[in-house]
Each structure stands twice: as C-alpha cells, then as structure tokens.
Amino acid sequence: QVQLVESGGGSVQAGGSLRLSCEVSVFTYNCMGWFRQAPGKEREGVAAIDNYGRAVYADSVKGRFTISRDNAKNTLYLQMNSLKPEDTAMYYCAASSVDVPTMYKAHFPYWGQGTQVTVSS
Fold this sequence. Notes:
The structure is a single chain. Strand 4 and strand 5 (44-50) form a beta hairpin. It is globular, with a radius of gyration of 13 Å. It contains no helices and 11 strands. By secondary structure, it is mainly β.
C-alpha cells in the first residue's frame, strides 16, 4: 500500500507564503505532482516534477510556485509565494510512473488525502 501524506496547509493573507510537504512511503516514482481542487470545481494540475528535476507548472502559478523533491527524505515540496485568493483549494500530492513531468490526472494512481490552503483578501 502506497501512502502519501500532505502537510503545511493553512490560512494566510494574500501575498503571503506557504510550503506544502508530501511524505511518501515509497519514493521510487518517476513523476510527482501537486493538484488542487476548490469546492464545485474540477481537480486541476498545479505542478509536477520528474526524477531529473524537470518541472512543469500551470500557467496560473508560474513565477509564484516552485516544486521540488528530496529523494533522501522521500518528500515532495511545493513552495507557494505571492498567494492569491484564487489559490484557495484543497491541495493534493500524487505519484505517477510516467517518466516525464505531467499533470494529466489519469497518469497518477496514488493520491494523498489533501491539505487545505485558504488565502484571504
């Protein structure tokens, strides 16, 4: 059983920062990603990173968010800066066997429980 556990969510003012972490029980996956879902909306890709450090980002977060991974700690990170109210959502980490960075949800069979991020104006 693969387990992914997110942490680091919370409530911040617009313009603030948060760093999300995702601890993975087995960190042998080629691609790891962050997704988010707001109430009444579809889950969308935020960022993804492969084993070589290649990353992709949603246009809405480019220049503000940074995804990284520490294989020695079996941990995935998402540094979130200049947060906006529209970033408010439940954030999920996920793991994929795809060997390129991707945010296609169907490629991710393993998901965490999510951590809530709320950004107030």
